[in-house]
Amino acid sequence: MAVTRQMIFPLAFYKKSKFNGSKGKLNYRIEKVSEGEGEEKEEFFLLSVWKGPFCYDATKEQKTTRRYPFSEEGLDAVVEELNRM
What is the pTM of this model? Predict the structure, then answer.
């Protein structure tokens, strides 16, 4: 089953919350992360992916992470990446 844009929340959701989901045996988490301060501040999506039955907090070393721009296009790229996996 493919992950669709409608299956994950709109961009505004990620300003305050994280999204955890799964696709078969693949688990994933999408969250907004900020680095830097002031004009140097960068905001991006962090996609964490791991296999297995355990939740995000119980899986420490087996996660793969990727960064995407915090934008509608970035969220579309997250969906595309999830479907490639």
Answer: 0.89
